[in-house]
Design a protein that fits this description.
The protein is an alpha+beta fold. It has eleven helices and 13 strands.
Length: 416
């Protein structure tokens, strides 16, 4: 957005120069105010060749130092079954070009960094026209991303699972740290990264804003592993070969991002399991409880007919709710709970057959029925709700582990 003079009095156009409407104190420093600008008539015309060049931070550091801020505007759908998240987020950047101070220019010819999301699935990027503030030689640009990102998930504890999705933003991808150095805006907080209204937009998931973190991706971890491997297999000291620095530089070429050219946002979520308990498990539990009435009946036909009817009802009910369950190649916690209900009903039929047609003794049948009145409910509770409580306990432990392993918030190394 270029700076234009007002046709009436020659004053600056507030819409183009920025405004001072920020209500939070920490935002006021990051937004240009009207009093910080200069009159358009006092500016000189910049050299067109210089405008298109990438600014260097200093003589010794030819990289462009860029402050960034990422804000999640909308999380439309968390689809962990298909390993994707549909969302919209904005990457805001600002950098300085001291050689253009107090000059007018065509902002469309300014050098701007390429921004990429390394875990993009079907993501579209819209680059807004950069804003230029001549008094401070400050350039700002927003990039709006909309679409889906990929994210691998584990469903072993479904529907009592917790997970996180990542957004990895890279500037000047596949150039390492040779072109830009990325830093985070110190005036921003986690509340600015993940606004509270995102939590209200979610129905099936809870966003844990207190666990949200912004940090640099751990690129050095892979590099250090290769360095240690090189040291372990190194020749004697006189014939060691390349130095650690050379290995770092060489291995860095295999990465799409550098140590200082990317930022990672991790958002932790947990599934709201109330739907699955009330709409699925409660009804299946009722069916199992009704099947135990057969232990009080003395007629073989009545007991078998009732158990078979309940078994078929449970199968029909499962087909109705199957769309709510993920289709995976392994058993989740919900699968184990549902199967435990079917097994319980199935064994009531087996117990009836054994009592009437195998042992054929009233005293034996009476003993079996009396024992089954206690054994089947206990087995049901242990196999069904025991799995549920184990998953809930594991979920709690995972949250505690996340708090200890990671530091929520914006990492300090992003501010340097």
């Amino acid at each position: 957005m270029s700076a234009k003079a007002s046709p009436n009095n020659g004053a600056e156009d507030v819409k183009n120069w920025g405004d001072a409407t920020g209500n939070k104190p920490h935002r006021r420093l990051s937004v240009m105010r009207k009093m910080d600008t200069v009159h358009h008539k006092a500016l000189e015309v910049a050299d067109e060749n210089m405008v298109s060049l990438r600014p260097h931070f200093s003589t010794g550091d030819t990289r462009t130092h860029i402050k960034t801020h990422v804000v999640l505007k909308k999380i439309r759908k968390l689809d962990f079954v298909n390993s994707s998240v549909d969302l919209m987020f904005i990457v805001s950047m600002q950098w300085e070009y001291p050689e253009l101070i107090n000059k007018t220019l065509d902002v469309t010819k300014l050098w701007t960094p390429d921004v990429a999301c390394i875990n993009a699935d079907n993501l579209k990027a819209e680059y807004e026209t950069p804003w230029y503030y001549p008094e401070h030689a400050l350039i700002r640009q927003n990039v709006i991303f909309q679409g889906t990102i990929g994210n691998e998930s584990s469903f072993k504890d479904f529907p009592f699972d917790n997970d996180c999705f990542r957004i990895v933003v890279v500037l000047e991808i596949d150039t390492g740290d040779d072109i830009v150095k990325l830093m985070y805006d110190p005036n921003k907080t986690i509340d600015d990264v993940l606004p509270e209204y995102n939590s209200r937009q979610q129905n099936e998931y809870t966003l844990h804003r207190e666990l949200t973190m912004v940090r640099r991706p751990n690129v050095a971890k892979y590099v250090n592993l290769k360095i240690r491997h090189q040291r372990r297999n190194a020749m004697p000291q006189l014939n060691r070969g390349p130095s650690d620095f050379d290995i770092r530089r060489r291995d860095r070429g295999f990465h799409l991002m550098g140590e200082y050219s990317a930022v990672e946002i991790r958002v932790h979520v947990s599934r709201d399991y109330g739907f699955y308990l009330w709409k699925i498990m409660l009804i299946l539990t009722m069916i199992c409880v009704v099947s135990w009435i057969g232990f009080f009946l003395d007629d073989f036909g009545e007991r078998v007919n009732m158990s078979l009817t309940l078994f078929l009802s449970a199968i029909a009910f499962l087909y109705i709710v199957s769309d709510s369950l993920p289709k995976l190649g392994f058993l989740t916690t919900m699968d184990k709970m549902v199967l435990a209900c079917f097994v319980n009903i199935f064994f009531t039929i087996i117990e009836t057959f054994l009592a009437f047609h195998v042992f054929k003794n009233k005293e034996t049948r009476k003993i079996m029925d009396e024992g089954s009145k206690y054994l089947f409910p206990i087995m049901f509770l242990l196999s069904t709700y025991g799995n549920m409580f184990l998953s809930l306990y594991k979920r709690h432990k995972d949250f505690q582990k996340t708090k200890k392993k990671f530091r929520p918030g914006i990492s300090n190394d992003l501010l340097k």
